[in-house]
Amino acid sequence: MAANPVATPMFNFMPVPTQLNEQGWLERFQFSGIVDESMLVSTEFTTSSIKVVALTFEGVPLTQLQFDTQTHELTTSNTLAVELDGKKIIYDMQSAFWPLAMLEQNMLDNNQVIELDNTVMRTRQFYRNDTLVREITYNGASTLLTEYEQNYRLKIERLEEY
């Protein structure tokens, strides 16, 4: 994850949506492509920050980060020499789980997001200059993010919401 920072952002970082304020998630992240790695990720949202802790499946902390959504300041502490790009994690999270209307309002020039919804599956597609660069598919508790520009995939399984 550290080797490929957010290349050219498609949207500005955004505040925490009201519906996520004081909420939390426990998820399984499975990366493939540049790196092949799996971990548990605990995320907590407040009005002004996003706190993320990545853990081994045995519960040992790998890294922790706190992102201030107002100043965009990122504080990271890596405990087991696992280098994760914190801003990239926040960027991926926002592209997948922030409301479509917020994304649309924060898209940068020559970028577009479209959401397709049918009875079986929902898909979010991100275009840069009319080229598909990122696709996110939602299937129940499982979300698959495919990043074509940076050549990686991230499968997220939501295990718990609190």
Describe the structure.
With about 160 residues, this protein is mainly beta. The chain has 2 helices and 10 strands, in the order βββββααβββββ. The chain has helices at about 85-95, 100-105; strands at about 25-30, 35-45, 50-55, 60-70, 75-80, 110-115, 120-130, 130-140, 140-145, 150-160. It has a 10-stranded antiparallel β-sheet with strand order 5-4-3-2-1-10-9-8-7-6, covered by helices on one side. A hairpin with a 2-residue loop joins β7 and β8. The relative contact order is 0.22. The model has no long low-confidence stretch (mean pLDDT about 90).
* Biggest β-sheet strands, sense, barrel: 10 strands, antiparallel
Strand content: over 45%
Structural class: mainly beta
Order of strands in the sheet with most strands: 5-4-3-2-1-10-9-8-7-6
Strand segment count:
10
Global shape: globular
Overall residue-averaged pLDDT value: 91
CA-CA gap between termini? 27 Å
Query: What is the N-to-C order of secondary-structure elements (H for helix, E for strand)?
Result: EEEEEHHEEEEE
